[in-house]
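Posting here for the record, re: glycine.
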Amino acid sequence: MPAKGAMMVLSGTDVLVIGHGVVGAIAAWRARVAGLAVTCLDPHPGAGASYAAAGMLAPVTEADFGEHDLVRLNVASAARWPAFAAEVEHASGMDIGFCTSGILSVAYDVGDAQQLDRLCQVQRRWGLEVEELAVAGARDREPLLGPRIAGAYWVPGDHQVDPRALHRALRENLARLGVTTFSVAAARLLTDSAGAVVGAVDTEGVTHLADRVVVAAGHATRALVAPLEGVEAPTRAVKGQIVRLDGRDAGWIGEARIVRGLVQQRPVYVVWRPSGEIIIGATSEELPDDRQSTVGGVFGLLRDARAIIPGLDELPIAELAARARPGSPDNLPLLGQTATPGLILATGHYRNGILLAALTSDACDAIFAQRPLDELWSTADPMRFCTKETR
Ligand code: GLY
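Prediction output follows.
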């Protein structure tokens, strides 16, 4: 780093990736695999939304009313996951905890059962596989269910991965390919006299020149592109709190399972990993990324999780975490080349960053080969919110 006040300009690279969560790491990896020279900026790689992700690969149980376009992307990405997981593991030599667990979805009371039934009908109209279970059948699948269950569905196609292990593996891939990550944040994007993005200046005042810049900075993308003409990225923080439990001493190890509950209209999920790690998630709060776990947030998660799995009571709490998902106005990502030369966006993956990682990897391959993206991505056009005159 230069002495304070000095200006330093680093010689140009092909691709500069701003943000080193799972999405940014994938962009960097695919750019490098395409033969490009890559540099990344992130003060704390993997410490943003990826850090608090539970890792559900859940196109069905995440499918909500009015989200058909997102569901199409999610379903396509879920189909790509087995091959993507194999590729990441092969390249890194690391296990990322990809498991085909299925998800059991349960309703706590009659109102919850009616709500799940309505949602299930929409999901079936969209061609998603949801199997209604008698409560006894649900108990056969999950003996730990509590006494008060009013309805249940089995979703065989929803699975899980360990997001922190995925991020570690992606970092390993980048290290093996000689990609440098500077532990510093981007302060602003750099443009030339024609308005093309040609790099970024970091918070230490160092200039990083690049032919192409991928902004994968989660909800912070909005502020980074705001000064530019002709592009808008209305990302916002949607805070999610999780509780991590340690099931090892209680013998809750060896199996990958997921139970999702609707408890008096509040959604909650419990994700078991074979290692004995258990994630309870997640709040969804229209609040800034303050990274604070709150009494109300944690109380609500524990109350609702133990309503469906009372045995959680005995487990020690390993960690509380709170991070912001990168939301967008229509819950779809912003992915692809913008109308601004040199500027690529890869953000807005909202609740599905880990699930969409596989399809995002394919999209990055297309971007760096300068091929058009698959038609599926048309709904995630990074220019769709642009109202600035140059649109
Ligand atoms: N995908 C689950 C969540 O965002 O909480």
